[in-house]
Amino acid sequence: MRELADRSGGVWRPSPGSIYPTLQQLQDEGLVSSEEQAGGRRLFSLTDEGRAEVEKRAADKAPWDAVSDDASVPQMELRNLFFQVAAASRQVVEAGSDEQVGQAAKVLKDARRALYRILAEDDEAESTAADDATAS
After folding, report:
1. Cα dist from 134 to 80, 85, 126, 129, whole Å
2. Alpha helices, DSSP H only, in 29-72?
3. SS3 43
4. Is the pTM of this model over 0.85?
5. What is the C-alpha to C-alpha distance for residues 1 and 10, in angstroms, rounded to an integer?
6. Which DSSP letter does residue 33 get?
């Protein structure tokens, strides 16, 4: 999961709930095998049939590239900033006083309102353009 997140530049962060059923399906199809490791971990490996399938699809675009190619730089920057704000918020909750938590809540409420205003301005601009076109 960490490798997929790294290869996609953080755009694709699959959860265990999506990875393990997929691995089970691949195992059922004979494309991977698994073995129990120390500490209850499972190691998955490609079978000969799985390696043949990988070779057959070698020219295909890797899924992590397809996902990261679809994201623009501003989208990625906003996404990364969101995670930084979430991490800072967690720190305030865990280490801040009641007053600091209250201040942080106000900052986040103001930010939420400001983000919705950005979208509302976009809607207003589209509505005004449509009204202008109708009036012409």
Report:
1. 41, 43, 12, 9
2. 48-56, 63-70
3. strand
4. no
5. 11
6. E
